[in-house]
Each structure stands twice: as C-alpha cells, then as structure tokens.
Hints:
Blueprint: E1 5-9, E2 17-22, E3 26-31, E4 36-41, E5 47-52, E6 57-62, E7 68-72, E8 77-81, E9 87-91, E10 93-94, E11 97-98, E12 105-107, E13 113-117, E14 136-142, E15 148-152, E16 160-165, E17 171-176, E18 185-191, E19 202-207, E20 209-210, E21 213-214, E22 218-224, E23 229-233, E24 243-247, E25 253-258, E26 264-270, E27 276-281, E28 286-290, E29 295-296
Antiparallel strand pairs: 1-28, 2-3, 3-4, 4-5, 6-7, 7-8, 8-9, 10-11, 12-13, 13-14, 14-15, 16-17, 17-18, 18-19, 20-21, 22-23, 22-29, 23-24, 24-25, 26-27, 27-28
Amino acid sequence: MQWKFELLMKPSSVPLTEGPVWDGEHLYFTHIRASRILRYDFNSNVIRDWRTDTNRTNGLAYDAQGRLFGCSSGGRSILRFDPDGRNVVIADRVEGKRLNTPNDLAIDRKGRIWFTNPVNEGNWDKTEVMELDNQSVLRADPQKDGNYKVTRVTFDTTQPNGILVSKDQGTLYVAESGYARGIARELRAYPIRDDGSLGTYSTLCTWGEDAKGVHRGIDGMCLDADGNIVATNGWEVSGPGAMITVFSPLGRVLETHPVPANRPTNCCFGGPDLTTLFVTTVEGHFFKAQTDRVGWAMYP
C-alpha cells in the first residue's frame, strides 16, 4: 500500500514544524520558530494554538503518567507542560554546564528522559555560547525530591537527532544526523544496560554522499506495533529524495513512501486506531496519511 499524504497545514512565513505526539484524542505538534504548540482535532480537522511562548520547543513526548515534556531549544532546557499552563524547567544543565539546543526526547517506563543535545544554529539566538565540548545523548533521571539528575550517555556522537526507546525497553535508537562530509549519517541501536548506561551500538543503516552533497539521514522517528522504526529522511539536495522509511529492528528496509515536501522532520501515529501517520517538515507543513500499519506509543 502506497501512503497518500493529505495536507492539513500549509507552510507560512515562519518555517519548521516538529514534534508530533498523540494523546488519545488530539495530535499535538510544535511550530519551533513561532514558539508555539498546536493541537489538531482528528474529527473536525481544526488546528488551534494549544501553548505559546515555548521558546522554540522542538520534540515532544508523553511519559506513562500522561505528562507532556518537550525540548526547548531556545531555552536550552527540557520542559514539562503542566495542565495549569506552566512551562516547568526540569533540566537545563549537565556536569554544571548549560545544555546546547535539546532536540528530541524519548521517555521510558522508569520515567527516565533520554534526549539528544546537538547544536542547531537556527534554534537559538546568535548571542548564545556553547558551554559543552560535545553533542551527545543525555539521560535525565527522576529523583525522589521531584528533581532530575542529568547524565551524559553517549561519547561517540557528533550531531544526534531523533531518538526512541524500543518497546521492550532494551534498546535506544539514535539518529546520528550531521551534514559534514566524511561523517556518515546513521541509524544506531544502543543496548540499554541495567544501570542505564549504553553498550556498543550496532549500525542499522548508513547514508552516504555523492557529488551533489551528503544524503540526508533520519531526522525524527516513531515505532509501529511490531517494533519497526518509521522514520523521516531524505531531502531535495541529493540522494533519493524526501521520504518515510520503515526499518525492521535489525535495520532491514521494509518499505519507503515519498513525502510531498523537501525535508520531512518528524512523524507519529495517531487517530482512534493508530493507523494514521502525521508528518511535519522543515518548510512548515503538517500532513497526515492513512497507512496499513498500526502505531505504538507508551502513552496513552
């Protein structure tokens, strides 16, 4: 079945939509440079502002308790979006230094927040200064007093982007997604050890380069009910173009679906039966497509 994408929101003068998540009734996604979170009603097709002043929040994720968290790139922090309207900073430093521009996050059943911490130049002010000497994956562990302890968990990434925890909680999928020639873009699978550290990764897929430029690897991704990785990748510059690629947990490419945009950023399943895929883009689109796959998320 070839997926047909329906345009729900056209790009505006402010680009970059991201972070789609489904809460069981509505689909939420971020408009990064407009610093807002939008809510899409599946039944009426209406899109409205849900939260503003999010300081360029990028990725979103729910925990098992139904609390919504996000990566505030402009605020260089991880936020919790409380129902009373507060945007609560739960992490903004690691080893005493300010975060870079948190990009995407995944939350496991222990409430640990795994998040990527690259530098996205367009998502923070030009006056900001990088304090860390690395672009890594970090883990924020909830403490008994309600605070979070942040720990660096990768020491081999150069620009990590999308991130997922597998259904069985045993694997951390990370998209290594820089654009420098000579550094491959990869989909990596890190074993999660009992103590929360990561083992040596396996490379599930690699994107190369040609005379036109580097091939764009994965930006964002989600899981289906069979544990497959459904990912946004590709662009108009080089390679086979913008698409959704479905990978098995071992890295086999199961299928691809061209996206009618230059640079898709992220995706997630939603709708009453979790068979509708929603896709955001660098240009600022918001699409949906009916699929023959069932999505999976820890919440709801």
